[in-house]
């Protein structure tokens, strides 16, 4: 046992925006600590793009896919967070079997939670059970903003949309996750102090009942093999290089985020009227503005890029 390298099993919630940073973390653990890793993915989001990405990883990182689970009993209107949570819960027996097999053949280490977004959102989720008990109505009806340690005040209507309807199963799932996050041995976040200094400082302070939080980002895909040194640089990068430091807003809604055309026009107008330099990663508009289809509809299996 002592002679085996440490092994990390990583459960990847759906979305390339979750898979890529976890894979980058696995690469760092392999390069710096000699660890091996298994990325465990969900069958619902398998695609040619995901398979190609997993096949490109170094030998120290392998992957396994959980078998499909039946979600047909959920309503078509179910939120993406509900779908993902239900899929995770229903896949527990299969996941348990995979982990048992890995335990017999590898030296599994740690029991950490990887949070792929940022420290502000993590703070909100960690405080959600407390807010659930103390806020009697809906967040959107609050007269005063929500104030959390180290965070900018959040007006009630600007709270995450999955938290805006307490009667929705999605909300109950989010409260559940907020409680269970505290069961982890540590929480690793794809962020860094320079971009969120105040909340990073607040989370570094020990808190009874909360695991330590480590900002380990940014974890981005940076393989040198993926870069064609002879190819001309993208025009947007040339433009970015000419801008003053700390003068550009980066706008991106992730691999699953899409907006209807009307909201995209409003966002574009707001950015233009702000007078602020910005770099915007634009996806094709969604008529419904929901991300559910991007993950769980057959259309999501069609890869738009060659």
Automatic annotation (TrEMBL):
Question: Does Transmembrane count among this protein's keywords?
Answer: no
What keywords tag this UniProt record? Glycosyltransferase, Transferase
Q: Name one GO molecular function term.
A: UDP-glycosyltransferase activity
Protein's recorded name: UDP-glycosyltransferases domain-containing protein
Q: Which domain of life is it from?
A: Eukaryota
Its source organism is Aegilops tauschii subsp. strangulata (Goatgrass)
UniProt xrefs under InterPro entries: UDP_glucos_trans
């Amino acid at each position: 046992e002592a002679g085996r390298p440490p092994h990390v099993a990583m459960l990847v919630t759906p979305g390339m925006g979750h898979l890529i940073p976890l894979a980058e973390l696995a690469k760092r653990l392999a390069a710096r600590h000699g660890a091996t890793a298994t990325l465990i993915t969900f069958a619902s989001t398998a695609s040619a793009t995901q398979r190609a990405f997993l096949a490109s990883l170094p030998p120290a990182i392998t992957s396994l896919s959980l078998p499909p689970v039946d979600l047909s009993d959920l309503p078509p209107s179910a939120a993406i967070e509900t779908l993902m949570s239900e899929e995770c819960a229903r896949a527990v027996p299969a996941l348990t079997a995979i982990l048992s097999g890995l335990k017999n053949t590898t030296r599994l280490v740690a029991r950490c939670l990887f949070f792929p977004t940022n420290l502000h959102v993590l703070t909100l989720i960690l405080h959600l059970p407390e807010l659930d008990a103390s806020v009697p109505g809906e967040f959107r009806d609050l007269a005063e903003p929500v104030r959390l340690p180290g965070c900018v005040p959040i007006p009630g209507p600007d709270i995450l949309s999955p938290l805006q309807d307490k009667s929705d199963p999605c909300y109950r799932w989010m409260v559940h996750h907020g409680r269970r996050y505290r069961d982890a041995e540590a929480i690793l976040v794809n962020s860094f102090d320079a971009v969120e200094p105040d909340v990073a400082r607040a989370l570094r302070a020990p808190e009874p009942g909360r695991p330590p939080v480590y900002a380990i980002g940014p974890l981005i895909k940076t393989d040198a093999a993926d870069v064609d040194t002879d190819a001309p640089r993208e025009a947007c990068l040339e433009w970015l290089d000419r801008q003053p430091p700390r003068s550009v807003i980066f706008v991106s809604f992730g691999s699953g985020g899409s907006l209807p055309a009307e909201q995209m026009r409003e966002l574009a107008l707001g950015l233009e009227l702000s007078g602020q330099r910005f770099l915007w990663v634009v996806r094709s508009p969604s008529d419904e503005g929901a991300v559910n289809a991007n993950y769980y509809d057959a259309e999501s299996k069609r890869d738009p890029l060659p």
